[in-house]
Design a protein that fits this description.
It is a single chain. The radius of gyration is 20 Å and the shape is globular. The protein has one domain. The chain is mainly alpha-helical and about 375 residues long. The longest helix has about 40 residues.
């Protein structure tokens, strides 16, 4: 059991710190190798997925390459990184994720009664109201610009499902959120990256606890409603959190909370809310009560282990990047992203990556919130029959 947990932590660390490598991809490779079976497989992939939620802030902070769970964090994280506060971003991610685990424990008492009452229709209503609110919060003509971005990204999200792509959301999310940031960074006057060795979170403890609790509750909601993703839950939190640190706290708490409650939802109802749970259903269809209790306790153990080395690992990466030419770094990452897109889905993947990148860049040029790009998920949910 301990061996499987430690291997899962190692795998989640690799996927968490590697740009463009999602934990679902790594878990699928492990599934294909058939090294583990039964509950041993469950432990490995669960530990892998949970560890990933703690550390996937590193690519979006240092490199600007998000996955679906952290896509909304890329600009706030990037702004802090340019101020030399990359290690603080990692600290926020670690402590917000750890807090989400702690908040999840008492929330587990009420979760079973909520899980039985979910409604797809309710989920669509939530998303519709969120989309309307998102667009109407823009000022003047920007409302029309926001609507255009929402519809363009939404159409792209609907279109991508018509093609046999291995990693469709890699192309969409990296294109919408990372590629425009990298392109803008190429024209930046910033010459070298510098990193403040101080990883202290510059935020009042009471404020941090509040936004972490908010993210934990929103993550729980995201695991309940089949039409409500962690990114959309974080989007709701963005209307309350008005500065970079509080927003990042919400995003990272949502990500971890959504993952652990998705496991509980799978145990209670058999529903799968992410790629890891799909693999669990495939390889180990039913979890017993004792197995579920063990995984919950193991969540605490995993989080404590990751907390021990998370900031130290980020410091090592920051030393490797210290003083590096900023433009060359971003150009290298941009090339890497396109190569990864080609590796996953060939020229078709690059086509979707480029199209998403154009929409994301247009968003910047029009001066509307990047969150309007979440239409890539929201529009198809609203229109779903």
């Amino acid at each position: 059991m301990y061996r499987e947990m430690l291997l899962g932590i190692l795998g989640g660390t690799v996927s968490g710190i590697t740009p463009a490598l999602h934990v679902n991809t790594l878990a699928s490779l492990l599934d294909g190798m058939s090294i583990f079976s039964g509950f041993s497989f469950v432990i490995v992939v669960y530990a892998m997925g949970l560890t990933h939620t703690f550390l996937d802030s590193i690519p979006s902070a240092f490199f600007g390459v998000p996955d679906e769970g952290t896509a909304l964090s890329i600009l706030p994280a990037h702004r802090l990184v340019l101020k030399g506060r990359a290690l603080e971003v990692i600290s926020i991610s670690l402590w917000a994720s750890f807090s989400a685990i702690l908040f999840a424990l008492p929330l587990l008492l009420i979760y079973p009664s909520l899980a039985e009452r979910y409604s797809p229709t309710l989920g669509r209503v939530f998303v519709l109201l969120l989309a309307v609110f998102l667009i109407l919060t823009e000022k003047g003509i920007k409302k029309l610009h926001a609507l255009m971005i929402f519809l363009l990204s939404g159409y792209l999200g609907i279109t991508v499902e018509k093609f046999p792509l291995k990693e469709p959301y890699f192309h969409l999310f990296v294109g919408l959120f990372a590629v425009p940031t990298l392109i803008v960074a190429l024209g930046s006057s910033q010459k070298k990256l510098t990193f403040d060795p101080d990883a202290e979170i510059k935020m009042k403890t009471s404020k941090f606890i509040f936004f972490s609790l908010l993210g934990s509750l929103l993550g729980m909601m995201a695991s309940l409603l089949p039409t409500f993703t962690s990114s959309q839950a974080a989007l709701m939190g963005s209307f309350i959190s008005r500065d970079e640190r509080s927003f990042l706290t919400v995003v990272f708490s949502v990500n971890t909370s959504n993952f652990i409650f998705s496991l509980v939802n799978f145990y209670l109802t058999g529903r799968t809310r992410n790629g890891i749970m799909v693999l669990l259903r495939k390889r180990h269809a039913v979890l017993t009560h004792s197995q579920m209790q063990l995984l919950v306790l193991m969540s605490l153990a995993i989080s404590l282990v990751v907390m021990l080395y998370g900031v130290r690992l980020a410091r090592i990466i920051s030393r490797m990047l210290q003083g590096i030419d900023y433009k060359k770094l971003n150009l290298g990452i941009l090339v890497f992203v396109f190569l990864a897109s080609y590796y996953f889905d060939g020229f078709l993947g690059i086509l979707f990556l480029t199209t998403a990148g154009m929409i994301g860049y247009l968003t910047l040029r029009l001066g509307v919130k990047r969150t309007n790009c979440m239409g890539v998920l929201m529009l198809k949910i609203i229109l779903k029959a």
